[in-house]
Design brief:
Layout (H helix, E strand, L loop, with lengths): L3 H20 L10 E2 L6 E9 L6 H9 L4 E6 L6 E3 L1 H9 L4 E8 L2 H7 L3 E6 L11 E2 L3 E3 L2 E3 L4 E5 L2 E5 L4 H23 L4 H4 L13
Parallel strand pairs: 2-3, 3-5, 4-5, 5-6
Antiparallel strand pairs: 1-6, 2-7, 2-10, 8-9, 10-11
Helix pairs in contact: 1-5
């Protein structure tokens, strides 16, 4: 059985849309989460963090608690503060973290891109933070209606983010591979001149009234 690290390239090639569709799970994060720089993508295991609005102390604790292959997934209340920047990204990379997802803001986006550190946020903001509340690390959090638990699988790319339980990983990967193969066959049929109505058997769903 392969490891998550070994499957990373394949997961990113499959992409979040295929993983979501094939999973049969309600596992996508709100589309408000967007990459902080073009081309950012990540695969890793979730380390949930809860931070107080305008306070990034919990994120510093999260970096310490996480390790190789982990992704910090942070509930910062969606507030547009600069919770994360170049310094924290360097610290995270030194510990082997593969990325950040935060309901809140990040800054230093050019530096994050130069470092190749994937960050997905709901805001870009230079507004400063305080360091007063240590928050929680490792406990389940809820991001805009989606519960995230420690060890959940996180895959993020320019299309979106999926988060699903680790015990679903093998099934989701197998289903995604099958879906990708089926779609490749559909593309060949479309290139040969068939229509999407025929390829997907949509004609049985009804015929529109003709324009007159």
């Amino acid at each position: 059985m392969t490891t998550l690290a070994e499957d990373t390239e394949e997961l990113l090639t499959l992409g979040t849309a295929t993983l979501y569709e094939a999973s049969g799970l309600d596992c996508f994060l709100d589309p408000a989460f967007r990459p902080a720089w073009d081309g950012a993508q990540m695969v890793g295991r979730a380390v949930p963090v809860s931070a107080q609005i305008g306070d990034n102390l919990a994120l510093h604790h999260g970096i310490e608690a996480a390790g190789p292959g982990d992704v910090l997934v942070v509930d910062a209340g969606g507030a547009p503060f600069g919770y994360w920047g170049e310094v924290m990204a360097v610290a995270a990379q030194a510990r082997g973290l593969t990325g950040l997802v935060i309901d809140g803001g990040v800054r230093d986006t050019q530096q994050l891109a130069s470092l190749g550190f994937p960050a997905f946020s709901t805001a870009i903001s230079i507004r400063g933070t305080v360091k007063s509340w240590p928050g929680t690390v490792g406990r389940p959090i809820t991001l805009r209606g989606r519960v995230v638990r420690r060890g959940d699988l996180v895959v993020a790319d320019r299309d979106g983010i999926v988060v699903f339980p680790a015990d679903e990983y093998g099934r989701v990967l197998a289903a995604s591979r099958a879906r990708a193969e089926k779609e490749a066959a559909y593309l060949d049929r479309l290139r040969s001149g068939e229509t999407t109505l025929d390829v997907y058997d949509f004609r049985q769903l009804g015929v529109p009234d003709e324009a007159r």
